[in-house]
Each structure stands twice: as structure tokens, then as C-alpha cells.
Amino acid sequence: QVQLVESGGGLVQPRGSLRLTCATSGETLEHYAIGWFRQAPGKEREGVSCISIADGTTYYADSVKGRFTSSRDNANNVYLQMNTLKPEDTAVYYCAAAPPAFCYHNQKIPPQDYEYDYWGQGTQVTVSS
Question: For all residues of the chain together, what is the average pLDDT?
Fold first, then answer.
């Protein structure tokens, strides 16, 4: 099992930046892919990014491509760097862990929440002037 805790959310102006941290513990992170999801008020949760820890493969949804970047460090933290934020990025952001097969090279569809077994509690991101 793996435990995940998100942090780094907050209020930011449009075109600003935030970096979310997903701190993990438990099993070694190389056994997992880490996905980033978000849920805006009144909307379904959507996958926006994933990173396969073992080989560094990443995926980004069209809505965030070129603005968001997933990465990890050597201390089992995974990051989502979010630049040029827009009001429509406002949501609760979650990180989640899945078997590494669910984040793969040339992935065409966003991460699906049913593929992910372990979830953090979420962190609020609000983009507003």
C-alpha cells in the first residue's frame, strides 16, 4: 500500500503559478504510477496528468498541456507544477496511485479514477483576481 498527502494549494491570480506536492509513504514509489485529478464544483472528477515513476513517462490532458508539469524527487515526493493558471483550473486537486501500466507512452486518454487504488485527501486551488 501507499499513502498520499497533497499540499501546496491556495489562492492565486490568473496567469500565476502554484506547485502541488504529493508526499507518499509506504511501498516504494517505483511500483506505481501517480495521477493528478481535479474536481470543480458541480463537475465530475477528471484526470489531468500522470507520471510513471519507474521510467518517467508522463501524460497531460489537452486542457493543461504546456502549462502543467509532473515530476518527482528522490524522497518519494511527486510534484505538479502549474503555470499560467486560469480561472477554469479552480478545483480540488488530488493525487492518486495506480499500477504503472496505467500511465504509458503515447497515452491518448486521461487517467481514469477507477484505475487508481490509493488517494490523497485533496488540496484546494482557486484561481481568481
Answer: 94
Convert the pLDDT of each residue in 55-72 to its tens digit: 889 999 999 999 999 999
CB 99 within 8 A of CB 33: yes
Cα–Cα dist 94/25, whole Å: 16
How many CA atoms does the CB half-sphere of 94 hold within 13 Å?
21
CA 68-98-11 angle, 5° bins: 35
Where in 73-114 does DSSP place strands (E)?
77-82, 91-98
The residue type of 12 is: V
For residues 89-100, average pLDDT: 96
Contact 51, 111 (CB under 8 A): no
98 pLDDT above the threshold of 90: yes
Over the Cα atoms of the chain, what is R_g? 13
